[in-house]
Amino acid sequence: MAKIQVFFGGSLQSEFPLESQEEYAVGRAPDCDIVIDNLAVSRRHCLFKSLHGQWMIEDNQSANGTFLNGQRTYTQALKHQDRIVIGKHTLLFDDYGSGHTHQSVAANVDKPAEPQDEGDATCFVRRDMVAQYVQRSEKGNMVLVLEGVRRKVVPLDKELTVVGRGSRCDLRIDGWFVKGEQLSIVKQQYGYRVVHEGGWRPLRVNGNKVREAILQAGDVLTIAGHRISFGSL
């Protein structure tokens, strides 16, 4: 019998036996079989499906993608100890019949995945700038700076920083078409990723319209007439 183990920050959060259904939905929506309440996860992010006794992982056109053992995937057969990453969470496919222990699975989670260049035109990953970014970030905390008369500085010291009109956002911006949660800044092992959460107003990074992008020190984000700089103190 197989099960899914959900990890966050290397710690086991929950387990879900795959025993009574042939399909399990994973996502942020409360009616999913495996609920992960995180803005980096789509409402219906992916599916675990049993096909002729073989478990499969299938991405459900998610905004941020589903990654199997470090590679973006859309539909793939699963094997014991396969690691599925969605947002900041890691899901381990654990096959009881293989005889492996929980410790070996947990050890597998702690191994960082190498960042992959997905070739997506809406996501700009400049590998030649990563080393420079790391050097800069070591000198001080990375921050978002809302420019203008109402200047605000928000340190990026959390795994997820939210920009929008909502009262619970870390950086609040106004505007007719600004959503309650407009942008997500996700802290990753190799940098920071900005994700546009939809709505009428497009996101631009250094003038380029994007849905998501890896940020570099000195980048300028513009949305709904607001100019936000990304850099270090």
Structural class: mainly beta
Give me the side-by-side strand order of the main sheet: 2-1-11-10-7-8
Oligomer category: single chain
Question: On the 0-100 scale, what is the average pLDDT?
Answer: 79
Would you give the CATH topology of the largest domain?
Tumour Suppressor Smad4
CATH class of the largest domain equals Mainly Beta
Number of helical regions: 2
Question: Rg to the nearest angstrom?
Answer: 19 Å
Poorly predicted tracts of residues: 98-108, 110-139
Give helix % range: under 10%
What distance separates the N and C termini? 51 Å
Instruction: Return the domain count.
Output: 2
- How many strands, what sense, and barrel or not for the largest sheet? 6 strands, antiparallel
What's the overall geometry? elongated
Measured by DSSP, the beta-strand proportion falls in: 35-45%
Number of strands: 22
CATH architecture of the largest domain: Sandwich
Order of helices and strands: EEEEEEEEEEEHHEEEEEEEEEEE
Structure, described:
The protein has 233 residues and is mainly beta. The protein has two domains: 3-94, Tumour Suppressor Smad4 (Sandwich); 139-232, Tumour Suppressor Smad4 (Sandwich), CATH 2.60.200.20. It has two helices and 22 strands. It has helices at residues 102-109, 127-139, and strands at residues 2-8, 11-18, 23-27, 34-35, 46-51, 54-59, 66-68, 71-73, 75-77, 82-86, 89-95, 142-146, 152-155, 160-164, 171-172, 183-188, 191-196, 203-205, 208-210, 212-215, 220-223, 226-232. It has a six-stranded antiparallel sheet, covered by helices on one side. It has a six-stranded antiparallel sheet with strand order 13-12-22-21-18-19. A hairpin with a 2-residue loop joins β5 and β6. The radius of gyration is 19 Å and the shape is elongated. The protein starts with a strand and ends with a strand. Residues 98-108 and 110-139 have low confidence and may be disordered. Pfam families: FHA.
